[in-house]
Each structure stands twice: as C-alpha cells, then as structure tokens.
Automatic annotation (TrEMBL):
Biological source species: Muricoccus nepalensis
Protein name: PEP-CTERM sorting domain-containing protein
Keywords: Signal
Leader sequence residues: 1-23
Top-rank taxon, per record: Bacteria
Amino acid sequence: MKFTTHVIAGLIALAAAAAPAKAALISAGYFEGNDCSGRGGFANCYATTTGVTNIAASGGSPTIYKYNFGGGQDFGRFETISGQEFTVSYASSSNSLSFVYTPGADDPVIHYFSIKQADGYALFYDLQNAITSATINLTEYFGRRSGYSHITFYDTGSTPPPPPVAVPEPASMALFGMGLLGLGLVGRRKLPPTA
C-alpha cells in the first residue's frame, strides 16, 4: 500500500515537472486615453508597468510593432521586424483577441503589449519571461464593447539593476579573526598525559 502511494506521488511529480511552464502574464490595468500619443509618434512610445509614455527617460521598453484592426501596421525601431513574425486574430463570437509571435534570430523579445479600444487601453506584461502568445477576453477589460482598435507590442522589459550590496568588511574580518583564535586555542589545548 505504501509503495503504491509513493509510486503514484512520484508519477504525479514527474508529470508536473515535465509539463511546459506558462508565462505569468500580469495585467497592469486599464488606462484612459491612447497608448501611443504625444510627440514623436508611434516609434517614440515606451511601456512601463505603470502605463505607456512618450518619455524616453522613463526607462520603459520601446515599441516593436502595432497591428490595427483593419490590418494596417506600424513598425517601431527594429529593422528585423517585417510583420510576418506576428499572427493576430480576433474572434467576434467570444470577443477575444489572440496573437502568436514567432521571432527570428535577431528579432527583439516581447515583455509588454497593449490593446486599445475606444477611449482607453489595457496593458499586459511579463518581465521574467518572453511573451510569445496570449489570448485576451476583451470583455474582461472593456466591458460590453466588442472589437479593438489596435494591439501594440513592446521590447524587452527594462528593469533597473539592483543596487550593489555592501560587503560588511569589518564583520567578515572579525569572523575570520575569531576562527583563527579558535584554531589557536584548540592547538594549545593540553592533552592528558599518556601512561
């Protein structure tokens, strides 16, 4: 009985480990206005976890590609992107938008995308893993409105490097000194006389 339980638990663990991991897509929320507006046009938009801006100093991720509902396209800063890397489809019956991104060897990695509809946009991101596909139920983000204006993809997530960790030199020197002192005391310990 116990052996069978262990075998079943082992098989479940093996199946879970062998299953492909799904990206942890995060919704940054719904934002009023246009996702790429302001000076500089489409190529001057940057995505951050708090929205889209046209301020380059924001540390955000630049645009890669925009696909419009009618089939029109806009391109960002990446010359390797032709639009062929993207398959975008809208299902009116479920009001859902899906995409698949198949990057070439020199193509950028997607970490953000936004979906624009009417007077606002929804922003999604995954800073840990590249986003290569997703299906979004638009009703969850835009209510009963159907369709979309465009979907925009953004480059690699820009996260600031962590601050350098100070090495506590005095503490490590004290620890080293205590270790040497301990070794010295052990070496000086008197052994009992042998008979």
